[in-house]
Design goal:
Blueprint lengths: L4 E7 L5 H7 L3 H6 L3 E7 L7 H5 L6 E7 L2 E3 H13 E7 L1 H5 L11 H9 L16 E4 L3 E4 L3 E6 L9 E3 L6 H13 L23 H5 L23 H4 L15 H4 L17 H10 L5 H10 L3 H5 L9 H4 L1
Parallel strand pairs: 1-2, 1-3, 3-5, 5-9
Antiparallel strand pairs: 4-8, 6-7
Bound molecules: iron/sulfur cluster (SF4) (3 copies).
């Protein structure tokens, strides 16, 4: 039997939902384990220490998956160590590949974020505004430290060399299966690419009029939010007036959100060849708004358009860096 592929998983600034997608493989995980072994999985599964990774031989892991964005100096440190230990490094999930929803934090400064998170939430009682400090002396003798908070969110590829990206928040389990199959069989795309089937969400969406009847798309004659009413089942959401990012998003999820009558919000990441997902979304949606009245409706319904269009990808965008 061929030697098993050694996998590593490392969670940085994320919620571990990406790693739950591996567990979602369910009974297929049993088949997968015939081909792979888990060499490292922290901190979600095993409570290991920095040393456990640092002391591994370089290239001891065949394929490492890192999920979560980069916000702390600890994230940078661990990403660099994992880079040395892994032959192939994958930015796993949209936080790691593009910055994710947490990347929107880069639109605010640290003081604003700390005040919101540690003082002004309805359930926080902190009238003196005591915030986490990187160093603290407790009882005059216990010197405690916390990882330092960096000014902006970065994606993994802005810190270390990344071999492949996988989109999704989290990646759909069937996509995880396809990615592991590609790794096991060596059928990988060029370095730096997304591991994707290359189809857009619209390509796999049962509501797509082009897929159903060969119709051409038409314009958006109004803008609605899902709180404005219940969208019709089976009809394209864009054509009903709901902003759906299906045309510009990788569809490896199988159009999951559309199955529950919800517009695609773009977690799959950009289609191959697109450098700035948010700019592509602005351009595509902007080009089908019927007239100024509909454009004004969009601004009224979504007052923070940068957060709307760059929901998952702000730190990766070219446009935000120029603003
Ligand atoms: S991509 Fe989504 S599921 Fe994965 S770590 Fe980020 S927030 Fe969690
Ligand atoms: S725009 Fe949305 S609803 Fe319409 S076909 Fe594409 S994914 Fe489906
Ligand atoms: S439909 Fe869009 S937002 Fe929903 S899971 Fe798929 S890529 Fe993500």
């Amino acid at each position: 039997m061929a030697e098993k592929i050694k996998l590593g998983f490392l969670l940085l600034g994320g919620c571990a939902g990406c790693e739950m997608s591996v567990v979602d493989l369910s009974e297929k995980l049993v088949d997968t384990l015939e081909h792979v072994e888990i060499a490292f999985w922290a901190p979600t599964v095993a409570d290991v220490k920095y040393d456990d990774l640092e002391n591994m031989e370089d290239n001891a892991i065949d394929v490492a998956f890192i999920d979560g964005m980069i916000r702390l100096d600890e994230h940078v440190h661990m990403a660099k160590i994992m880079r040395k230990k892994a032959k192939i490094l994958i930015a796993y999930g949209v936080c790691s590949a593009l910055g994710g929803t947490a990347g929107l934090g880069s639109l605010h400064d640290k003081e604003e974020l700390f005040e919101k998170a540690f003082k002004n939430t309805p359930t926080t009682d902190n009238p003196d505004g005591v915030y986490p400090q990187p160093e603290c002396l407790v009882d005059g003798k216990y010197d405690l430290t916390l990882p330092k908070y960096q000014d902006k969110v970065r994606l993994l590829g802005q810190v270390v060399d990344v071999d492949y990206n996988i989109g999704g928040c989290p990646p759909h389990y069937s996509h995880v299966e396809a990615a592991i199959t590609a790794l096991v069989t060596g059928q990988l795309p060029p370095k730096g690419s997304y591991i994707t089937n290359g189809k857009a969400v619209c390509d796999v969406c049962e509501r797509n009029p082009v897929n159903k009847e060969g119709d051409n798309r038409t314009m958006m004659y109004r803008v609605l939010r899902t709180v404005d009413g219940v969208p019709e089942n089976d009809t394209c959401l864009l054509l009903q007036g709901y902003v759906c990012f299906g045309p510009m998003t990788q569809g490896d999820c199988g159009a999951s959100c559309l199955h529950v009558n919800t517009p695609c919000r773009g977690c799959g990441g950009p289609l191959p060849g697109v450098e700035d997902y948010g700019a592509q979304a602005i351009s595509s949606i902007g080009s089908i708004l019927k007239d100024e009245t509909v454009t004004a409706q969009l601004k009224e319904k979504y007052p923070n358009l940068s957060k709307f269009f760059y929901r998952y990808s702000l730190p990766s965008g070219i446009l935000p860096k120029k603003m």
